[in-house]
């Protein structure tokens, strides 16, 4: 039998009927609102099924997904990722985003780009992109605009340091209730870009600060807020 939304924030397994589309519309309090099923969920008729094990999550107004900590990233449309240029052609680039196949990034997929005026990326450069096409039967395609032609923070990443972490930690970093980045920002001016493919890019004034911030992020995955506050305080005392 289909479960109602009492399954929210509970563990589900592949094949579980999480709820119905009608349940989701009632929960969003707007039957006309378009529902968005994220990673781990798919619709079959009126039923919503889980195809990954994890925790059933919801973000207002009508976004639902399964929060899981898998090793390999699976592309999802409109997610933002950090890629590494692995090859370049006349009109496009091949980009490593941690998936089984490289993604394609058009040289015109940047704000204001034309055939005469476009970024000149080199192999090994980092780029922050949005997945414009993500289909299991097609090669992923990337875009450095938000769909309306604006970059909104997307594009090449210069300098700094990129490191890999778990997919669960990247989602945790983007959670507004996770206090680590806010605490670090009180003591260290820095830039941080989080890709949902398990990559984090950090840039700060000094190499010591970059290393300290990177280590703090890596160590915070299984800490609660109180432990994070203690860690940041000890980190600041050690550097200052």
Automatic annotation (TrEMBL):
One GO cellular component term noted in the UniProt record for this chain: nucleolus
Primary location class: cytoplasm
Domain Exosome complex exonuclease Rrp40 N-terminal, first and last residues per copy: 35-72
Keywords for this protein: Cytoplasm, Exosome, Nucleus, RNA-binding, rRNA processing
Molecular-function GO term, any one: RNA binding
GO biological process, one term: poly(A)-dependent snoRNA 3'-end processing
Pfam families to which the protein is assigned, alphabetical: KH_6, Rrp40_N, RRP40_S1
Domain K Homology: 160-207
Tagged with keyword Transcription regulation: no
Subcellular location: Cytoplasm; Nucleus, Nucleolus
Stored PANTHER family: EXOSOME COMPLEX COMPONENT RRP40 (PTHR21321:SF1), PNAS-3 RELATED (PTHR21321)
Family assignment from sequence similarity: Belongs to the RRP40 family.
Protein name listed in UniProt: Exosome complex component RRP40
């Amino acid at each position: 039998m289909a479960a109602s939304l009492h399954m929210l924030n509970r563990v589900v397994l592949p094949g579980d009927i999480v709820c119905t589309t009608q349940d989701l519309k009632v929960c969003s309090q707007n039957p006309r609102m378009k529902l968005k099923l994220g990673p781990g969920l798919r619709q079959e008729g009126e039923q919503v099924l889980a195809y990954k094990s994890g925790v059933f999550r919801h973000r207002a107004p009508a976004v639902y997904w399964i929060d899981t900590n898998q090793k390999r990233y699976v592309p999802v449309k409109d997610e933002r990722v950090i890629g590494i240029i692995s090859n370049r052609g006349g009109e496009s680039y091949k980009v490593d985003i941690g998936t089984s196949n490289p993604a394609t990034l058009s040289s015109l997929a940047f704000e204001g780009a034309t055939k005469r005026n476009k970024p000149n990326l080199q192999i090994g450069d980092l780029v922050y992109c949005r997945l414009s096409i993500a289909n299991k039967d097609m090669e992923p395609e990337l875009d450095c605009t938000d769909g309306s032609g604006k970059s909104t923070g997307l594009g090449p990443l210069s300098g700094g340091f990129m490191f890999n972490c778990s997919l669960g930690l990247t989602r945790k970093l983007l959670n507004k209730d996770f206090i680590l980045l806010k605490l670090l920002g009180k003591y260290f001016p820095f830039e941080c870009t989080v890709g949902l493919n398990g990559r984090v890019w950090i840039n700060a004034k000094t190499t010591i600060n970059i290393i300290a911030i990177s280590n703090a992020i890596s160590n915070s995955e299984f800490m609660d807020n109180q432990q994070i506050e203690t860690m940041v305080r000890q980190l600041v005392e050690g550097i200052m």
